[in-house]
């Protein structure tokens, strides 16, 4: 195996992993600032200028807090739960194309860890495994409220993954590929998939809120009914892993939506910028545009959380089974008819 290839991939994986953790860490800060702005207050402002060191202070606090494991819990699974949630959250970025191929000293290097031809299925598989961290943690706690929360999370995950998968089928009818890089390359310039799949995007976005357990679909963490949910018995950094995994999942969901429907690193006038900036800076500028799209989605996640009240659980399930799934099926039928008419006429 080429040593340079291994070094390149190791550096890329390290950079992506570090970026994911930093974005997730400062998403906690941004969440509190956005909430404060919407509620007409200040938010964190003591740790560092404008409170920008607050995430570091929170991390130190989580590590330093006393670790308590309930005596009646399954200790092995109690430890596995948050670790699995964190692992599944982190490995979803492996197939994301972060930019066009970049040229360094005459050597072309792709800004993607791996381009597998079933990258979209890989994302779905990783997201599906993430709920096991919640289920294991809720069951291993030996607490009825945690167990009820884990059951809620599992049923919610199943309900909304069906609608999400069906919304993706319509997109696949348009793109004819499961490779994320292939999907992004088809959206060159301003030819984004949002223009041809607006309903599919709307369904996918709503399902993303449910998949990440974000308000108004945060029923597994409903304090009023479950005293905090599946991580009620957790303390110290094990609780931090669960909280951190939610923000990484939000980052990954935002990345996938920007990739599938908003062109990823593509933007209007990118060909002109490529000739202007050259083969090194142009891909980096495209990556910058990509991250701006991701940050816009993260802000939208936060905006919705502090604007819309929480659903009742029966409303949550009815929306998934009786509204989103029929809409997704109708979207597939309409997309198939339009493609057939365009190809034949």
Quick structural gist:
With 345 residues, the protein is mostly helical. It has helices spanning 3-38, 54-64, 75-90, 119-140, 144-175, 180-185, 198-211, 223-226, 236-261, 270-305, 313-344, and strands spanning 102-104, 107-109.
Note the topology.
Layout (H helix, E strand, L loop, with lengths): L2 H36 L15 H11 L10 H16 L11 E3 L2 E3 L9 H22 L3 H32 L4 H6 L12 H14 L11 H4 L9 H26 L8 H36 L7 H32 L1
Antiparallel strand pairs: 1-2
Give an overview in words.
It is globular, with a radius of gyration of 21 Å. A hairpin with a 2-residue loop joins strand 1 and strand 2. The longest helix is centred in the N-terminal third of the chain and has 36 residues, at 3-38. The model has no long low-confidence stretch (mean pLDDT 90). The chain has helices at 3-38, 54-64, 75-90, 119-140, 144-175, 180-185, 198-211, 223-226, 236-261, 270-305, 313-344, and strands at 102-104, 107-109. It contains eleven helices and two strands. A two-stranded antiparallel ribbon has the order 1-2. The protein is mainly alpha-helical and 345 residues long.
């Amino acid at each position: 195996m080429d040593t340079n290839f291994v070094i390149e991939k190791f550096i890329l994986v390290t950079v992506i992993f570090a970026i994911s953790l930093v974005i997730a860490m400062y998403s906690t800060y941004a969440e509190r600032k956005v909430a404060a702005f919407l509620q007409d207050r200040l938010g964190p402002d003591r740790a560092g200028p404008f409170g920008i060191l607050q995430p570091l202070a929170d991390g130190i606090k989580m590590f330093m807090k006393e670790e308590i494991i309930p005596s009646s819990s399954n200790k092995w699974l109690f430890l596995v739960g948050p670790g699995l949630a964190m692992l599944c959250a982190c490995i979803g970025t492996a197939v994301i194309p972060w930019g066009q191929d970049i040229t360094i000293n005459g050597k072309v290097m792709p800004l993607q860890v791996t381009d597998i031809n079933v990258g979209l299925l890989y994302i779905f598989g990783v997201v599906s495994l993430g709920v096991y961290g919640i289920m294991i943690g809720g069951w291993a706690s030996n607490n009825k409220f945690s167990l009820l929360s884990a059951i809620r999370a599992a049923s919610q995950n199943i309900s909304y993954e069906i609608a999400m998968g069906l919304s993706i089928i319509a997109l696949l009818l348009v793109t004819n590929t499961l490779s994320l890089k292939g999907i992004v390359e088809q959206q060159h310039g301003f030819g984004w998939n949002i223009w041809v799949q607006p309903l599919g995007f709307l369904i996918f976005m709503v399902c993303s809120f449910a998949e990440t357990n974000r308000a108004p679909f945060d029923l597994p963490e409903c304090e009023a009914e479950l005293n905090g949910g599946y991580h009620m018995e957790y303390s110290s950094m094990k609780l931090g892993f669960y909280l951190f995994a939610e923000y990484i999942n939000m980052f990954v969901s935002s990345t996938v939506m920007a990739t599938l429907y908003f062109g990823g690193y593509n933007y209007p006038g990118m060909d002109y910028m490529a000739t202007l900036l050259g083969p090194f800076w142009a891909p980096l500028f495209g990556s910058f545009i990509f991250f701006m799209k991701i940050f816009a989605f993260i802000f939208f996640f936060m905006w919705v959380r502090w604007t819309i009240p929480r659903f009742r659980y029966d409303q949550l399930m009815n929306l998934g089974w009786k509204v989103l799934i029929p809409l997704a099926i109708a979207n597939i039928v309409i997309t198939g008819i339009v493609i057939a008419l365009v190809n034949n006429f």
